[in-house]
């Protein structure tokens, strides 16, 4: 692992005096539907401004801007939206905080991953070029683009057959959400785009290049999403060539090997970057993080044994450890990616808040709509109020939370959701609660997978939109997991974490742990498991595990067969 | 099997002249929520009046009239409602037809079963007595009262252990919907009501006693619902005594052995019956039928090989055959119960229209409510319109239609519904269609169970509310079953069938086949399977059968465990 000359942390020369004047940092968190910025006083830790800008193109899963229809399981984005975020949120937080650009010391950002952009040799996304703007493969493939499942499966099988040692570090199975299946899909389906691509670039890395004018690739993206391992690099060219000769030579050319760990910064804000953001050229830009990982220092989860769940539309589970172990179905781990000297494991659930929203959008009766309206509360609030009154087990329902496939511990995007125990007495709030509970069982499955493989879990933190605004759900999680859960009062953990990385990049703090000690959002609530509830949930979890293994581990492949049939039927005509 | 002296068919003396004047017959069909009457010209076959009266107490599943709360799975009725039907629908059809009571030659009726009333020695339901009116067990246990599941299971096990030969005739498993589990539940839970009961009587038999003043018990009720077999009678007193000494001596006392086959009539209308109905005393009252069975002659299904599905809130499957075979999971068969000389098999699905209604009541979004309202169509129509546009397999969903347990071929009321294949793209109409399709798979399962046991199916008839008004669904059935389906244009097949039995009772026709030839409603539509659709449905049916066997045949008893947990939780305060 090499360091970029001249921009290694703690060695660049920012004057102490200058630091004290330039005491403000900005963190930007690029999520699935919007970018959010936080302006932080890096000395006092107080938050001076928060801004959000929704991507105008949101997630393109039906058509691209030209009107061309997209096949099943596509999820694309438009990179112009990411630039719009910069143009909007930075002036917004500055004006909220009454801060001038000159007082901003540094910038950090985090991004969803693997969110992949094919760019040309000048660093421009191919979709910006009118030649390619009618070609879906020229756009950004969002993390939840699931159309490369066939590639992911073939790659897994091929790596297994060849006994590739890196496979075990990724839970033994390659996810369609990762970079290489997405790249291979482009190569297989659109040789022209593959040829025109100079770099397949993570959106986060592309943005740091836009801001600094220098190309760098963050170890978290390469490590968690593209099989890059500290000290070992990418899988061999031999592997990729044997898989598909058209992938020959990609490593080191179309996939950059300029990978940097967290003890580096991305670079300094360029003149172009300054023009785009309104900030001053020359301030440090931190190495981009994955969105979930950025949240860890924001809640003080910076030590081995800290386990964190970022619960939102999906859930990301992260665990810092001192040791490493290859664990089946865990997405991967990276050393020095998030905290220097730490190994950080990642696991995840592909559908959490998304599933509840789906239920509300599709399956809530008009009577409830009226009731929520009369009470002046949201549908989530109404359903939670009703669901709260239910006793555990009263509905007789158990769900499998795989509405968007299963990330951990099965790592198969072609699984689907299930609801069992329905009777003519089943009420909407019972289904809603069963969906909540299923996500808690899914999290317990992941936690047990870590523990059963010898990794130590000391403290559980929860963050993300749902963790902050839904005590009912987090209590269910505490009861299902049987462990206390700490929640910090912030809905902007990602952006705050990025700001903390920015604060370290400026040199205000010598380390992320030091910065987190001062700047992390304090834990405001601890959820303690209720022993009676735990006992009831143990029974239901037992049922969940039987269904989980039956449908997820190959005994009955019905979900895959049905999804295959969907594809067949939809591809007719 | 004895005949009632003086009232055997074809031997009583009604003058031909009188017949021609008294050419009208009335059939009354007692369903789950209402009684419906048809006035028929027994010579020409034309329908002169149709009336319906909804039971004021409907189905009591939460409380009885005193306000006392009912436990889970109760489904009671109030027998006063049945008398109200008589008081209302008969004058109504007469007035519609412009017919005077004097011109009515006979009366027939059919009833749901086993719908069981405890009556005292004067023939009055115990719940009419203020001493017992606060006691749930004094009321009518409707066919879908499922609270005697434990009794049904214990009885099955006990009969199996003793090698009772009658068990095989009932598909090898006793349903909680049948008479004996209901009787035993009363004995176990309310000895006082059991003691006060002179007869446990099917509601249909009780009504014929109310109308004629004579007690008789129709072979269809005793045969399908109480283990009575032609030539063999009930199981031995030894069996019942060994099961529970408190049941000793019931056969022949609290359970009457005065069982009559279809070549008999119930009696003649008494003076009290005449006062109640406004009809003339002395006209014959046909032996009551089970509601579904009455529909067979109404659509001309009177010959061996005729298979009939009466599709409504639940579905009843009936098959006339020349032979008998003991078939696992089929509800039972009775010889001479429906057509003299024929064996008629019965099977059923416990939840069909009920399931669709549940979906509409609970899980349809307000946007759809508005859309249906704007288009001026019902929610069923809207959902069918949307569901019709889907290709087979396009939704990727498969459901198990056990929202009210499974009657055939598993015969376990403590199973529940399941929905698999859900994704974030799943739409309400897709779930609705999956529910429709699941009921079609359930019917195919039953049909194949007959055929695999060597019984010949020649023609498939469909009747009932859904069969007439829903061509979309019946086409799905034809495609799933892979056989043509005949539908007669009547929503009153039960009442028409009862009128046909009445016409035979009057002597206007010498046999049910003769009467059906003249009076049956003609087939108005034949649904032919589409071979491409059949092929697609074969794949989905294959998936259904795997789930059916996995959850229904003991490999994973999760549904029972969850329902047991529901009961435990609800029984805590």
The order of strands across the largest sheet of chain A is: 16-17-15-14-20-21-22
Strand content of chain A: 15-25%
Number of helices of chain A: 20
**How many strands appear in the DSSP assignment of chain A?**
22
Q: Mean pLDDT across all residues of chain A, rounded?
A: 93
CA(first)-CA(last) distance of chain A: 51 Å
Query: What is the gyration radius of chain A calculated from CA atoms?
Result: 23 Å
Q: Structural class of the secondary elements of chain A?
A: alpha/beta
Quick recap:
Two copies of one chain form a homodimer. By secondary structure, chain A is an alpha/beta fold. In chain A, 59% of the residues are buried.
Mind explaining what this structure looks like?
Two copies of one chain form a homodimer. Chain A is of the alpha/beta class. Chain A is built from 20 helices and 22 strands. Chain A has a seven-stranded mixed β-sheet with strand order 16-17-15-14-20-21-22, sandwiched between helices. In chain A, a hairpin with a 7-residue loop joins β16 and β17 (343-349). In chain A, α13 (379-388) crosses α14 (428-452). β19 (417-422) of chain A pairs antiparallel with β19 of chain B, so a sheet runs across the interface.
Chart the SSEs and their pairings.
Two copies of one chain form a homodimer.
Chain A: H1 16-21, E1 24-30, E2 34-41, E3 47-54, E4 76-77, H2 80-97, E5 104-111, E6 116-119, E7 140-141, H3 149-161, H4 179-189, H5 191-196, E8 199-202, H6 203-212, E9 217-218, H7 219-225, H8 237-243, E10 259-260, E11 265-268, H9 271-277, E12 284-286, E13 289-290, H10 291-298, E14 306-311, E15 315-321, E16 332-335, E17 343-349, H11 353-362, H12 366-375, H13 379-388, E18 398-400, E19 417-422, H14 428-452, E20 459-463, H15 465-469, H16 471-481, E21 485-488, H17 493-506, H18 512-519, E22 523-527, H19 531-552, H20 558-571
Parallel strand pairs in A: 1-5, 5-13, 9-10, 14-20, 20-21
Antiparallel strand pairs in A: 1-2, 2-3, 4-7, 6-8, 11-12, 14-15, 15-17, 16-17, 18-19, 21-22
């Amino acid at each position: 692992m090499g360091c970029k000359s001249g921009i290694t942390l703690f060695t660049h020369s920012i004057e102490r005096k200058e630091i004290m004047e330039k005491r403000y940092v900005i963190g930007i968190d690029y999520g699935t539907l919007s970018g959010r910025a936080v302006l932080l006083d890096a000395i006092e830790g107080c938050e001076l401004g928060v801004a959000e800008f929704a991507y105008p193109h949101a997630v393109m899963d039906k058509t691209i801007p030209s009107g061309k229809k997209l096949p099943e399981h596509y999820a694309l984005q438009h990179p112009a939206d990411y630039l719009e975020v910069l143009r909007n949120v930075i002036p917004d937080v500055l004006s909220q905080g009454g801060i001038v650009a000159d007082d901003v010391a540094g910038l950090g950002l985090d991004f969803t991953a693997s969110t992949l952009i094919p760019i040309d040799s000048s660093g421009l996304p191919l979709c910006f070029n009118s030649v390619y703007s009618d070609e879906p493969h020229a756009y950004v493939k969002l993390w939840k683009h699931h159309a490369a499942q066939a590639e992911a499966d073939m790659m897994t099988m091929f790596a297994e057959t060849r006994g590739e040692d890196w496979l075990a570090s990724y839970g033994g199975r390659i996810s369609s959400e990762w970079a290489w299946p997405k790249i291979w899909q482009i190569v297989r389906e659109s040789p022209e785009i593959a040829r025109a691509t100079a770099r397949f670039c993570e959106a986060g890395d592309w943005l740091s290049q836009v801001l600094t004018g220098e190309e760098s690739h963050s170890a978290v993206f390469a490590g968690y999403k593209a099989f890059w391992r500290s000290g070992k690099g990418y899988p061999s060219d031999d592997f990729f060539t044997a898989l598909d000769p058209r992938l020959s030579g990609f490593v080191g050319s179309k996939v950059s090997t300029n990978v940097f760990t967290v003890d580096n910064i991305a670079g300094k804000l360029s003149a172009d970057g300054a023009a785009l953001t309104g900030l001053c050229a020359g301030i440090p830009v931190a190495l981009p993080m994955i969105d979930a990982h950025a949240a860890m220092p924001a809640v003080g989860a910076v030590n081995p044994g800290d386990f964190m769940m970022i619960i939102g539309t999906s859930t990301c589970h992260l665990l810092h450890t001192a040791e490493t172990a290859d664990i089946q179905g865990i997405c991967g781990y990276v050393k020095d990616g998030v905290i220097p000297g730490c190994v950080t494991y990642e696991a995840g659930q592909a559908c959490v808040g998304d599933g509840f929203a789906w239920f509300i959008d599709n399956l809530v009766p008009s009577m409830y709509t009226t009731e929520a309206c009369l009470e002046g509360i949201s549908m989530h609030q109404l359903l939670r109020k009703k669901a709260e009154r239910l006793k555990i087990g009263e509905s007789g329902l158990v769900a499998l939370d795989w509405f968007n496939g299963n990330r951990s511990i099965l790592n198969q995007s072609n699984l689907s959701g299930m609801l069992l125990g329905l009777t003519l007495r089943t009420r909407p709030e019972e289904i809603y609660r069963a969906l909540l509970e299923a996500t808690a069982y899914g999290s317990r499955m992941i936690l047990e997978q870590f523990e059963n493989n010898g990794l130590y879990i000391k403290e559980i933190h929860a963050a993300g939109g749902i963790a902050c605004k839904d005590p009912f759900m987090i209590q269910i999680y505490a009861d299902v997991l049987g462990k206390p859960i700490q929640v910090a009062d912030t809905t902007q953990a990602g952006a705050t974490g990025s700001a903390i990385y920015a604060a370290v990049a400026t040199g205000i703090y010598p380390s992320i742990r030091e910065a987190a000690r001062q700047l992390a959002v304090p834990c405001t609530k601890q959820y303690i498991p209720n022993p009676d509830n735990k006992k009831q949930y143990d029974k239901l979890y037992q049922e969940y595990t039987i269904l989980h293994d039956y449908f997820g581990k190959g005994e009955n492949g019905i979900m895959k067969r049905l999804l295959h049939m969907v594809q067949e039927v939809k591809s007719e005509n």
